[in-house]
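Input set for joint prediction.
Command: fold jointly, output tokens.
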Amino acid sequence: MSCPRNEEWVLYAAEELPARRRRALASHLAGCPACRREAAAVSRGLAALAAIEAPGLGAEAEASLRRRLAAAHRPPAVIRFLWRHRWSAAAAALVLLAVGAWMLAPPTSPTPAHPAPGTWLTDVQVQAELAEIAAGVEILEAGADGQVADATMPAPETNGDWLLDEIDRFLEQLRAEIEA
Amino acid sequence: MTQGPSDPRRPEALLTVFAPRVYGLLYRLVGRPDVAEDLTQETMLRAYRGLRSYRPEGKFRAWLFRIAVNLARDWIRRQPRQASVSLEEGADPPVAAALGASAPPDSGVTRRERAARVEAGLARLSEADREVILLRYYGELAFKDIARATGEPIGTVLARAHRALRKLGDLIPEDEI
Ligand SMILES: [Zn+2]
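tokens >
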């Protein structure tokens, strides 16, 4: 084997060569003093890097960075707005879905098991969503009257927060979808 | 999708794992602690905002350090022309503070001397060669990822690395390794 290009000794010293190539270079080294010197010099260069002292980020800069990242970590303004106005937002979503369903749904529509990925809401999905929200509103109203018929739902008297949790979950999904 | 403590999508991971490294790289590239701090913040914020499009199987570090390198290049380009950017004369690097980036213990004059020699050698490298070396050191990037971070072909990166490593290697006597 003839001497490899000098640059290849960089990859050799950094252990970034595929195993087969690495073995070939290693056996070349055994018989070539010039390449041995070259490889050793590059290795010394890599070892020299370890001597660099890493300067640290100042405490003040770190605190400021932390604040700015925390601010960037807040949910987007639209989500915070929706959360503040979650009740009217839920009503608006219901109206939108109802209108959408009315516009999209033919009287007889087939029921695909899984909607094709990447397509917008199908009429079937819209109807399913609508039914889900309608059920939610029903529960909501029942909860407000203190008469929950469905035994699987916790009674509002025993846990007044469960509806809020439901809304939370709904908004969490919405957030995930918006962020996706 | 999991969000473990080292998941780069968590701001904490950006802070604890990457901020000190990005800062170190930027400090060495621009030579001024105040500018390096500003650019570190900008890098982290841009990275954070861009995280939605980041996929875990991608090369996160190469992507992150590319942001930092580009910011440093922009800053250097905006400066009045100088012979080269070098660390401020006599300026002490800020004391390594939090984020786990504590200064190495003072283990004697030899270590200090060697550090000074290597840092002087770094300052004498061309800007582009220094970039490659700093990405290797602070980013712990493989050379193919350094190529991604600098936007250069791998052959160019290796040529830069070779030239720079030979110069740095010459600063250290063979018996010191
Ligand atoms: Zn040879």
